[in-house]
Write a structure and sequence with these properties.
It is built from eleven helices and 33 strands. With about 675 residues, the chain is α+β, with helices and mostly antiparallel strands. The strands form five sheets. Strands 3-2-1-6-7-4-5 form a seven-stranded mixed sheet, with no helix packed on it. Helix 1 crosses helix 4 (about 80-95). It starts with a helix and ends with a strand.
């Protein structure tokens, strides 16, 4: 395909040159007495230059970068195989920059012969609007840059010299030897213009470059061009560096986030040289959130320099585990929602300005967190503005319907808020009339002493919602929550969570010790503890730190895992040890029955009865778990998973999927 493309370009170029030869000597704006007429006509006759569609040449117009490359490429001998080599080396990079289509062969010629390199092209691509590699570019090539390009295109060796221009002090030292080489062969006048100036930063006119090209052609024709002789040199791509925020490593790849949050993945072999704050380090010391500078050879990392930086975020507490100090926070960065888990064991913690501990933190509290790596240094939390205290009762006073509460658990005095006409109660998951709350105890699902939050209308004057706050530390009082797991008659503990199974995590779940004579009340009747099922909504009475009574508020517990359906999302993890597969529904356009599960990451269990497909190819359980990582190794984040579940009996006790399909986006 590349060979055919080169032939097509050659035909197009030949047609262009043929047109130039016919019209070359008839430029309407090159007068008979123009000082450069002979040079312009000579270059036009050779097919090196051409004019504009209106028949003009614009000799006084400044030479543009791509025009210069086209002109000097006539001094180069580039074979078809060399063009193909240049395309294979530089094609992908040029595709990203998208230079003017007509200029691509001239750019490749100059790159192949070392007249320019990709740094030159990248710099030109960032200069001007439109840039210097686009059509209708406004910025021109300077005299200094033109001198270097001409000397390299002619195959001249730099000649150290002392320049006599009146503005020699303004010429960069690296340019002087190339100017000396061009002076030596007569391409540049050692005296400069009529004022003895070189003007290194000014552009050359099209007429001036025509003269340089004419003289250069005569020299190369007589003396040859060393750049065209000898074996072909295949240039290597220079190393480059990229900087971002470290996210993770997976197999032999590293993922970082750039300044605007876009994820970038690079090859990360075991031989990578790694440093942390300038000292050699190991992967075990590297954590998410560190700044990292990667030195790349192509798309492969050869060095990774990590930096432990202090960072402060405004966040909301998402999870406070009962058995560790690893608190999960959610925050916004670059208009995207991010989560981070930090160890707060040694952090200075305040709550509403007062000294506090991790035991005082709750999900939903706002928090300003300063941290390094995965360690929190300072955590300033505050309760939600609608935090109230501990429920007392619903009561009317005249025409006002009120909810009374105690600001602190041991407060002697109650306070109250006025209720809106309708009030949402999260315990019963419904809105009820305020008058019904006051008049009927059956409408009120709250128990005295339960911690609650209030939601207000826009005016902030009346309560539109009452929310129960889960607190498993109550030794004497009430805990309201969901049964986390089915209960056996021999169990001496009960697991509860503030969320149902579909939304909870292992960090939400707490175990409570059962009293030997615990009373279970289901629908107003005495029941066995073994009749408690996962996801039953319960009101637990605690006495002396033991569960004394369990009242089931909603007896519709789920015993077979997720509902029957088809669920899809972005593949997150495959745990072959525990036979689990996880996916994220957040960015999933393929919703199907996703409304039956929670938004975000969901985990399903599978077993030997499950059918597995990867890109429509069937796998056994063994082959699936054996091949999954090697198949998805390079594009782990680019796969979607579709899970098909069926109804299961209570005896099965596990969430078993019937079919798993994984396909690339």
């Amino acid at each position: 395909m590349k060979k055919k493309l080169t032939k097509v370009l050659s035909i197009i170029l030949a047609c262009i040159l043929l047109t130039v030869n016919i019209e070359a000597a008839n430029f309407k704006d090159v007068k008979q007495n123009h000082w450069a007429k002979s040079y312009i006509e000579k270059c036009a006759d050779l097919g090196f230059i051409n004019g504009y569609t209106d028949g003009s040449f614009k000799p006084d117009g400044s030479i543009k970068f791509l025009e210069l490359l086209k002109m000097v490429s006539n001094l180069l001998n580039v074979s078809e195989s060399e063009m193909q080599t240049a395309e294979s080396i530089y094609g992908a990079q040029l595709n990203k920059l998208q230079p003017a289509t007509w200029a691509r062969p001239y750019i490749l010629k100059c790159l192949q012969k070392g007249v320019i390199n990709m740094d030159t092209i990248n710099t030109a691509a960032k200069t001007g609007n439109p840039s210097m590699i686009k059509d209708k570019a406004q910025n021109s090539s300077s005299r200094s840059d033109t001198a270097i390009i001409f000397a390299k295109a002619m195959g001249l060796q730099p000649v150290p010299t002392s320049l006599s221009y009146n503005d020699s002090s303004e010429i960069n030292d690296k340019v002087i030897p190339y100017i000396g080489a061009l002076q030596k062969v007569g391409v540049l006048n050692p005296k400069g213009n009529d004022k003895g100036m070189f003007r290194p930063k000014d552009p050359l006119s099209r007429a001036e470059v025509s003269k340089m090209l004419s003289i250069a052609y005569d020299y190369v024709s007589t003396h040859g061009n060393s750049g065209n002789s000898g074996s072909m040199v295949v240039p290597t791509q220079p190393n480059k560096t990229v900087t971002g925020t470290f996210k993770n490593t997976f197999s032999s790849y590293i993922t970082i986030a750039d300044a605007i949050g876009n994820l970038k993945v690079y090859s990360y072999p075991a031989s990578v040289t790694k440093t942390l704050n300038g000292a050699p380090t190991f992967d075990s010391n590297i954590v998410e959130g560190m700044e990292v500078t990667l030195t790349l050879q192509g798309d492969t990392v050869i060095r990774a320099d990590f930096k432990q930086v202090e960072k402060t975020i405004d966040s909301v507490i998402k999870e406070v585990p009962s058995r560790s100090y690893n608190v999960k926070f959610e925050y916004k960065e670059n208009n995207k929602t991010q989560t981070i888990t930090l160890d707060v064991q040694n952090a200075t913690i305040t709550l509403d300005g007062n000294k506090a501990t991790i035991d005082d933190l709750k999900e939903g509290y706002e928090a300003k967190v300063t941290y390094k790596m995965d360690k929190a240094i300072k955590l300033d939390a505050k309760r939600n503005q609608n935090f109230a205290g501990f429920f007392e009762e619903f009561r009317s006073s005249g025409r006002e319907m009120r909810v009374y509460y105690k600001p602190e658990y041991n407060s002697r005095k109650s306070d109250y808020y006025v209720l809106n006409e309708y009030v949402y109660l999260n315990k019963s998951n419904k809105s009820v009339r305020a008058t019904d709350l006051v008049r009927s105890s059956n409408t009120n699902p709250f128990v005295k002493g339960q911690p609650i939050n209030f939601e207000f209308d826009r005016s902030g004057k009346s309560v539109t919602g009452v929310y129960y706050e889960f607190d498993s530390r109550i030794k004497d009082g009430h805990i309201f929550g969901y049964i986390a797991y089915d209960v056996n008659s021999t169990d001496n503990k009960i697991s509860v969570s503030p969320k149902n199974y579909k939304s909870s995590t292992k960090y939400d779940i707490v175990d409570l010790d059962l009293d030997r004579n615990v009373y279970v009340n289901i629908n107003g009747r005495d029941n066995r503890i073994s009749n408690l099922r996962r996801d039953m909504l319960v009101n637990i009475t605690m006495k002396d730190g033991y569960v004394y009574e369990i009242e089931v508020i909603n007896s519709t517990g789920i015993t077979s895992g997720y509902e029957k359906g088809i669920f899809s999302g972005e593949l997150v993890d495959v745990d072959t040890r525990n036979h689990q597969i996880s996916f994220d529904t957040y960015n999933a356009p393929w919703n199907n029955d996703n409304n039956l599960i929670s938004e975000g990451v969901n985990t399903f269990e599978y077993d030997e009865r499950t059918k597995f497909y990867i890109d429509n190819k069937a796998y056994s359980l063994y082959d699936f778990e054996y091949n999954i990582f090697s198949i998805l190794d390079k594009d782990y984040y680019n796969y979607q998973v579709t899970i098909k579940t069926g109804e299961r009996t209570y005896a099965d006790r596990r969430v078993v999927v019937l079919e798993v399909s994984i396909n690339k986006f």
